[in-house]
Amino acid sequence: MTQAEDRKLTRRQVLAVALGAAGFAAVGAKTVLGAAKAQMKIGCGTVSFRRQPLREALERIRRAGYEYVESQATGPWCPHVDVLKDDPQTFRKLVDNLGFKGVTGLWAGGDMTKTIHWAQAAGIPVVHTGDGHIADSVSEEDALKQLRDRLAGILEVAEKCQVYVAIEPHGNFSLTADGLKKIMGLSESKWLGINYDTANVHRVTYAKNAPGAYGFRIFGRRQDEVATLDGVADRVIHVHVKDVVGTKCVALGEGEVNILGCLRVLQRHKYTGVVSLETEGDLDVDQTQHLIETSRAYLVRALS
Fold it and tell me: What superfamily in CATH does domain 3-303 come from?
């Protein structure tokens, strides 16, 4: 991907395209990876090295000591997986050969049905997406009805494939506990859950005109990342741990996000799934390598 192509689409634009094409996707359950141990699992997303080839991204993450990894099918933003062209078995073999214990999730960037089938074939238990943005002219009731209709077909496929669909805080509803509860209430399917993102929710607390503040409608009461997580922790099946200063990603514990507070909420709710480091992939490779190593050390200390 060239720098010019990289500038054409932001990550949120890629996700919005995916939602417009296929509705949304969400993650699985507290036992998605098997909860033989009470300890949370520590993972890292290849998106941190989104400008490098998949193999290099995986090698660098493994070199940093991570045993779990996740990837994205959100090209051109993060083109590490193309569900229309890539062989899921080849992907899985690469991951296994590098010594990872598991792939925890896959971000969808297009056809949800194809992404879910690809994830099943690759042994990936969870497919992530957001809820997207709605026009100011659309009422809350109508927006929820549209989401319900989209989810119905997606969750039928998810159930057949035994793959979880996880909603990540990205849009009008999913950035508050009130909104996430409304989304979770749209279906009784056990294959629907939440991929909680600490920094995305933190930015809800920014003043209206502050750098990084959201410019779209947000339904529900705005709370910080700890209070919001506490309100929906029983539906969380995957977690993105991300720390920021403004909009810039930094190593965990070095920014504004209350990462430790979120981890304590997860422990209190007996969450034993993965906490997966995520950044926007904007730093150079050496800076990113240092960030993921520092962040892993932070998580090991925090969870010990």
Answer: Divalent-metal-dependent TIM barrel enzymes (3.20.20.150)
